[in-house]
Amino acid sequence: MAVLANLQADVHYHQVLSMALEDRSSSYEDLVSNNNAMLAVLRRKGLWRTYSGPRIRQTLQINKQDAQWYSGYDQLLNPALDLFNDVFYSPKMVVVPVILSMQEILNNEGDAQIIDTLEAYMDAAERSLEDTMDAAIYSNGTAFGGKQLTGLAAAIPILVATGTYAGIDRTQANSAIWRTTTYDA
């Protein structure tokens, strides 16, 4: 009979944890994007989007035609131009594991106590996620074997003709448009 009661208690706590995690999961994106000024601006301007597929692909206009003044039958210049190019990014994932042992669960019996324990663990995890994202936004993305978010240090490098960003190799002569032209720290 005691084993059955313990199993029922375990099921109850797992349900509480599952419901609490499910209820909280929708706030992670807002928490991170509002913590960092750049992400908050992107979100406010509607530039924060979800993606689907193995890579994030964006088509960019990289050039424009020149307008020409003419009169009568003047010959118009019509050079061939590459107007568009695609860039792509590999999605990066970050996680903060939240683990509660069965002993911690059993030591904090009662609905209010287990929720308080879970809240403390989740708050600590959220702070860790905020700090990690803050650092990554300004990084070059090489930490953790290249698994880190590719940040501004890769997008706007100090050495202008080095590295690859968004699938474009800046060392190639035809990639001069993608090189940093002004840098003022």
If you had to describe this structure to a student in words, what would you say it looks like?
- The chain is mainly α.
- It has one domain.
- It contains 7 helices and 4 strands; from the N terminus they run H-H-H-E-E-H-H-H-H-E-E.
- The chain has a two-stranded antiparallel sheet with strand order 1-2.
- Helix 1 (2-24) packs parallel to helix 5 and helix 2 packs across helix 3.
- Mean pLDDT is 77; it is low at 1-8 and 18-29.
Shape: elongated
The biggest sheet, with number of strands, parallel, antiparallel or mixed sense and barrel status, is: 2 strands, antiparallel
Number of DSSP E strands: 4
Q: Please, how many domains?
A: 1
| Beta-strand percentage range | 5-15%
Radius of gyration: 26 Å
Distance between the termini: 70 Å
Task: Determine the fraction of residues in helical runs and give it as a percent range.
Answer: 40-55%
- Read across the widest sheet, the strand sequence of neighbours is 1-2
Q: What low-confidence regions span 5 or more consecutive residues with pLDDT below 50?
A: 1-8, 18-29
What assembly state would you assign to the polypeptide chains in this entry? single chain
Structural class: mainly alpha
Order of SSEs, N→C?
Answer: HHHEEHHHHEE
Compute the number of helices: 7
Calculate the mean pLDDT score and round it. Answer: 77
Summary of the model, kept short:
This protein is mostly helical and 185 residues long. 43% of the residues lie in helices and 9% in strands.
Keywords:
about 180 residues; mainly alpha; two-stranded antiparallel ribbon; disordered N terminus; two-stranded antiparallel sheet; 7 helices
